[in-house]
Write a structure and sequence with these properties.
Metallo-beta-lactamase, Chain A; 14 strands; alpha/beta; about 20% helix; about 30% strand; about 260 residues; 7-stranded mixed beta sheet; binds zinc ion; single chain
Amino acid sequence: MKISFLGTGTSGGIPVINCGCQVCLSDDPCNKRLRPSIKIEVDGQYLLIDTSMDLRQQLLRDPMPRIDAVLYTHAHADHIYGMDDLRRFNHLQHQPIPVYGSSSTIHRLRQAFGYAFDLPAFQNGVPNLISNIVDKPFRVNGTEIIPIPLWHGKMEILGYRIGNFAYCTDVSAIPQSSYALLQNLEVLVLDALREEPHPTHFSLSQAIREAQKIGAGQTWFTHMNHKIDHQRHSALLPERCALAWDGLILKIENKK
Ligand SMILES: [Zn+2]
Ligand SMILES: [Zn+2]
Ligand SMILES: [Zn+2]
């Protein structure tokens, strides 16, 4: 299994428009963060988790030959507004693309992109998508995917586990029952917005505590804002915790 971080920034991206702070002005490429999304190559197929509004730019930089499915964590703007760019893959693949999410996420996707669902026939120029509501483990072409319920403030959203990898972005609390789904991970990706507490995201210190409680082989933090300086904050982290960056690639042995 190969994981590529397409974007590790929070909703506004880094640099922030018209911001003169040290991180936004930094030359460190690890401080340039597009909106959150990852791609996964597993069992010979290509998956995306979320379609950030930077998707076109991300896939020009880090191409995918095809997209077999998209898993949505939730329907906030930074995670969904690149969806229209899926139409290029429909055009290349000549078939609809299945998308997966909770019932509330799928409901909001269908409101925002009504023109992309339930098309009577294949159409060029728009995405051709098939929505799938998930609330328990499911398979995409034979690969098992386990949805992980998470709290994003008062909103229930989903993380996803594939093999011994899990992606949990936009999380401020993990329900007790979800810890059982996060056992024996080789790699965990976890939200860590900034140092200060936030109502809908883990702070860096909360994320470190959760990482240690879950005990994955390695935990990578994502969805960071411009108060997180890659070099300075990386030096403060305990063992087996690190800040992800746009372009980071992880190779994981896919134990089933
Ligand atoms: Zn977000
Ligand atoms: Zn800034
Ligand atoms: Zn969100």
